[in-house]
Design brief:
Blueprint lengths: L2 H18 L2 E5 L2 H11 L6 E6 L1 E4 L4 E5 L5 E7 L11 E4 L7 E5 L4 E4 L2 E3 L2 E2 L7 E5 L4 E4 L2 E3 L2 E2 L6 E5 L4 E4 L2 E3 L2 E2 L5 E5 L3 E5 L2 E3 L2 E2 L5 E8 L2 E5 L2 E3 L7 E4 L4 E4 L2 E2 L10 E3 L70
Parallel strand pairs: 1-2, 2-5, 3-6, 4-7, 5-8, 6-9, 7-11, 8-12, 9-13, 10-14, 11-15, 12-16, 13-17, 14-18, 15-19, 16-20, 17-21, 18-22, 19-23, 20-24, 21-25, 23-26, 24-27, 25-28, 27-29
Length: 337
């Protein structure tokens, strides 16, 4: 092949790769996030929206509604220009006035990761503060924080629904949210398998007696629930966890299990105070003496992430810890084991 022809072929290959590749956008304002979502609705590509670390006060909710067969990902925690991660938080703040995020991607997958959702309010319909739904794709929610949100008619923090594709909810912190129906998280599906793994869901509240303050799962198909802390969500008349659906539970710590379907597998479950460390605001790492350290299942169904909620390696001890944080038990009583 002549050199000129070879160059033309390489150029054409490069163009093809560009067309097939995901559309990656870096944003640093609330308006920029919504503009990127608007563009992603019908651009014919998979979309990745990278959000610079910082605080994003919303006057209206972030929304997306598409029937394209393409995926959507929102990822927080980037430094300026999104050339790398900053180590700082991306906070989406509803200012106690608006719902935070409403995504329907009917024919594509959804992924939301490394975002802190705070002070959201929903008072229309049965909305959750963050609502994610797909008919055919996988819905993935990983390494986020939901804190101080309020739904007056629905779910206090997160509703994630995946029909055929199912849902993956892994290594999130859900704390101090309140909902009329479910206090913390509702995961639903129309078939297939969904996985809830390694989350810390604590101190959430439901307004409705008998419903779950922490986590509820519902729908056909099957749910696998592993390595979660679901604690102190029950209140006087509720429960921490409930489901009428087929499910299995492995190595969870649950305060109060509500009336519902019995699990088809129940292994390593505890019902104990998690014993959190005194490590500051929104820190729910385990104290070195917690019974949940090294008590998780190392290879949960559908896998687990290589790092915990704050980026520490998973399995620092003999086994994985239960909850969203991995404890570095290096110095106990001043000595290294």
């Amino acid at each position: 092949m002549k050199r000129c022809c070879a160059v033309i072929v390489l150029i054409l290959v490069g163009i093809a790769k560009t067309v097939d590749a995901a559309n990656v956008v870096c944003v640093s304002t609330a308006n920029g996030i919504q503009s990127a979502l608007n563009n992603a609705v019908a651009n014919g590509q998979d979309d990745i929206i990278e959000i610079v670390a910082g605080s994003y006060a919303l006057s209206t909710k972030l929304s997306f509604n598409s029937t394209e067969a393409h995926s959507l990902a929102l990822v927080g925690g980037f430094n300026a220009g999104c050339v790398g991660t900053s180590g700082d938080a991306t906070l989406v703040d509803g200012q106690h006035a608006v719902q935070l995020l409403d995504v329907f991607n009917g024919s594509g997958s959804i992924s939301v990761s490394r975002i802190t959702f705070i002070a959201g309010t929903a008072d229309v319909g049965l909305n959750a503060i963050v609502t994610l739904s797909s008919n055919t794709g996988i819905v993935i929610v990983e390494r986020n924080i939901f804190v101080g949100n309020r739904s007056y008619n629905g779910v206090g923090a997160l509703t994630a629904y995946g029909d055929a594709g199912g849902v993956r909810v892994r290594e999130n912190l859900v704390v101090a949210n309140r909902g009329a129906l479910i206090g913390g998280v509702l995961v639903g599906q129309g078939g297939g398998e969904s996985y809830i793994t390694g989350n810390t869901i604590i101190s959430n509240t439901t307004d409705t007696a008998g419903l779950a303050g922490g986590l509820a799962v519902n729908g056909s198909g099957h749910f696998t629930i592993s390595n979660n802390i679901i604690w102190n969500n029950a209140g006087a008349t509720g429960s921490d966890f409930s489901t009428p659906a087929a499910h299995s539970r492995y190595s969870n710590d649950i305060g109060l299990v509500g009336i519902g379907a019995a699990p088809d597998q129940l292994v390593g479950e505890q019902y104990v105070d998690p014993q959190f460390a005194s490590c500051g605001f929104l820190c729910f790492e385990l104290a070195w003496y917690s019974p949940l350290i090294d008590a998780g299942v190392d290879a949960p169904a559908a896998g687990q992430l290589g790092v915990d909620l704050v980026g520490k390696a998973r399995i620092l001890g003999a086994h994985v810890d239960i909850g969203a944080y991995e404890n570095e038990v290096i110095f106990v009583d001043g000595f290294e084991p």
